[in-house]
Amino acid sequence: MKKLFVAVVLCAAGLVQAEPAKYTEVCKGCHDAAIASMMGAPAQGDAAAWAARQGGSLDALVASAKAGIAGTAMMPAGGCADCSDADLKEAVKYMSGL
Q: Which of 13, 36, 41, 60 shows a CA-CA span of 20 to 30 A to 92?
């Protein structure tokens, strides 16, 4: 119970970012730290892995996510048919920490 209370307080204070819904629904399946290395995907929260892609530019990462990455499991928009540009940006920002 203490851990939950601490998490709620940190989120409310803006010190910990809440997990965006589209990340949970779509991105987490490949970008969760437990599976990302097996998928060849950068893990959520691995700042170095994200910085190494697209020069670490948030806009370039979002454009790449939107287009998909040929030769990988990364489909356009991660396969999310109803993701808006804002949804993609929010998810990439959350995963990359940019």
A: 13
Type and span of the H or E element at 38: helix 36-39
pLDDT of residue 56: 83
Cα four-point dihedral sign 42, 46, 52, 58? positive
**79-85 contacts, C-beta under 8 A, 24 or more apart:** 79/26, 80/22, 80/25, 80/26, 83/22, 83/26
pLDDT tens across 65-95, in order?
999 999 999 999 999 999 999 999 999 999 9
Helix axes 85-96, 58-67, angle to 10 degrees: 120
Residue reference for tokens 């190494």:
52
Amino acid identity for residue 16 in this structure: V
